[in-house]
Design brief:
- The protein has nine helices and twelve strands.
- The radius of gyration is 22 Å and the shape is globular.
- Helix 1 crosses helix 4 and helix 2 crosses helix 3 (about 30-45).
- It has helices at about 5-15, 20-25, 30-45, 60-85, 105-115, 130-140, 200-215, 225-235, 280-295; strands at about 50, 55-60, 95-100, 120-125, 145-150, 160-175, 195, 220-225, 240-245, 255-260, 265-275, 310.
- By secondary structure, it is of the alpha/beta class.
- The strands form two sheets. Strands 3, 4, 5, 6, 7, 8, 9, 10, 11 and 12 form a ten-stranded mixed β-sheet that branches.
- The relative contact order is 0.16.
- Helix content is about 40%, strand content about 25%.
Amino acid sequence: MLDIRRLHMLRTVAARGSITAAAQSLELSAGAVSQQLTALRHDVGVDLLRPDGRTVALTEAGRVLLEHADRILAAMEEAECAVAAVKGTVGATATLAALPSTVARIVAPALSALRADHPQLAVTCLITDQAQLRELTLGTVDVVLGQHYHHLPETTPRSIAVSPLLDDPLLVVTATDGSGERPVGLRDLATHHLVLPPATTDCGQAVLHACRQAGFTPTTRYVTADIAAQLALARSGLATALVPQTAIDPATPGIRTAPIEDHPIQRLLFAATRHTETTNPTTAAVIAALRTAARQDRPAHLPRQPEKQDREQ
């Protein structure tokens, strides 16, 4: 009989690209992972991995076994959710991955509420903007607070269930000039020196795409994904920044914020979990806390989609 732990290791190695990387993710030694994969190879009687430069790749048999492993692991999680639903109680642990730009206004209030409402629940929070949904599919995290820019292609895996939380527009941020928050045309920024995230990031791609739609390629003087650095450069008058509203503290001194009136750039903040037929009370509690914090932050900008129609992608 196949060992489910070994199937999980095979999936992790396939996703990470090497036994060393998989071992780090699983908090095991590379030797231990190699030993378990060797045992799995003996179980099935055929090679599952092959060298591929400095990495490893699945053989044809490995790809076939991985397809079945995905279904087996999904069924195991479904069983765990069903039992948890029968118990009807929130569990003891959960792992949340969240974007840095959401920590102050959504994540921190949500975690505080969870601590008060479910003191037995210990939430580990990973603050990262890298490969969140991949970590979710691998089981490294239980809930993702992610983003999708409305005018970019949807890339959410089909195995992920998405609950919309908040529509979050990017604002134009400059040094205070006493002129108030009247809207700004994106085309007007063609002559500005901008501080933008790298073009490899979701936000960077969204800004570049919107600027090109507005008829210009932005003059990027500074490149950083660090929002604190973006705001500092804007405050000093060295650059104009485009920053999500949720990431800006309204009490921040020395800056002026203004909406974009002609080519708005807007992201949807969402909570994502692995799709299961039965709701897990623990992940449901985390999502409920995130949704409440998002509402309290800015009720006027709730998503257009009804919450009860969570999208399965």
